[in-house]
Amino acid sequence: MAPFLLLLILLSEAASDLIVVTVHSGDDVILPCQADGSSIRAVEWTRPDLKPPEYVLFSIDGHLDPTHQHPSFKDRVELVDRDLKDGDVSLILMNVSRHDAETYECRVVTDDSRRKKRAISDSEPIGTLRLQVTEPDEIEVTVDPGDDVILPCQAPGSSIRAVEWTRRDLKTPEYVLFYSDGYLDPTHQHPSFKDRVELVDRDLKDGDVSLTLKNVSSIDNGTYECRVASAGSRRRKKGIIDSEPIRIIRLQVRDPAGPEDRNSSSVVLIVGLAAGVLVLVAAAVVGVLMYRRRKNMRSRQPAADEASADTLV
Ligand SMILES: *[C@@H]1O[C@H](CO)[C@@H](O)[C@H](O)[C@H]1NC(C)=O
Ligand SMILES: *[C@@H]1O[C@H](CO)[C@@H](O)[C@H](O)[C@H]1NC(C)=O
Ligand SMILES: *[C@@H]1O[C@H](CO)[C@@H](O)[C@H](O)[C@H]1NC(C)=O
């Protein structure tokens, strides 16, 4: 019994240790934090890399205090529940950028603790989170017309609510493919993609949101973007995912009479020209030789063979 208990304690220690939250740049994110008591007077969210007294957010008696808020968080942070009901002191951080990828700590002061603001920062955090921000990466895919192609895209998390594939030249709300809550939504799909696109894995297992594009032609050439909405991120607009893409793919559709073909046809042309020149040169040489021969023959047998030489030429 004793070892079992010890294991449980270790597990819960590990669980409260460090939570990693991953989000795409441009998204909003909730950093969860839960206090034990319900009578909370003040909440402080900080980052160890900020110089005190700077903080991310400080709320006391139901009011946000902007006095020492680090400027980068101005108008970008909120508490999920200002009333802090049931001890929920989670933070909403909007429009995340790579500069937000740091460690976040949350601390609370309860009614009975009588501690002042200064003492908050000295207390142990009740929650520590590491925020990871993923930036889009850009790749190039080359394909021959008539082929099927897979445009690979991997979401960082596995709890995906919606997937959107777009091409940059399409006008919103048109898209290549939109998948939400288990269904492909054809409402604003650009007609050229009808019956030609599929997700490689409809179950989106392990965050694979790659796209299959069938029977590619030159009209498919362009820059494709892959976006996902995860269960943790909030979507501002319905239908369209307005966060940054997680991957950008330049799809190059080879010209049917592509560079290689053109090269080989010019080789044929050069070989042809060279052959033509050779034939001309050969003809000239033969002509000169014949002329000489005829001349020689003429000088040796002035009249006799003239007729046969003429018929020979
Ligand atoms: C999000 O932040 C970026 C800078 O990181 C800014 O350029 C952009 O305008 C912001 N978007 C919104 C909707 O506030
Ligand atoms: C592929 O697309 C071309 C037009 O780009 C069409 O003529 C052809 O029938 C399509 N092939 C298949 C197998 O769908
Ligand atoms: C194909 O798209 C790329 C950009 O993704 C562009 O540079 C290229 O010129 C396009 N080719 C054709 C044949 O349209």
What characteristics describe this protein?
single chain, 313 residues, alpha+beta, Immunoglobulin-like, six-stranded mixed beta sheet, 4 helices, elongated, disordered N terminus, disordered C terminus, binds 2-acetamido-2-deoxy-beta-D-glucopyranose
Q: What is the CATH architecture term of the largest domain?
A: Sandwich
Strand content: 25-35%
Give the uncertain stretches in residue-range form. 1-15, 261-273, 301-313
CATH fold call of the largest domain: Immunoglobulin-like
Helix content range: 10-25%
Largest sheet: 6 strands, mixed
SS elements, strand count = 18
SSE topology string:
HEEEEEEEEHEEEEEEEEEEHH
Radius of gyration: 37 Å
Strand order of the largest sheet: 1-9-8-3-4-5
The CATH H-level superfamily of the largest domain is Immunoglobulins
Ligands in the model, by name, code or SMILES, are: 2-acetamido-2-deoxy-beta-D-glucopyranose
Shape: elongated
Per CATH, the class of the largest domain reads Mainly Beta
Give the structural class. Answer: alpha+beta
What count of helical segments does DSSP give? 4
Average per-residue pLDDT, rounded, comes to: 79
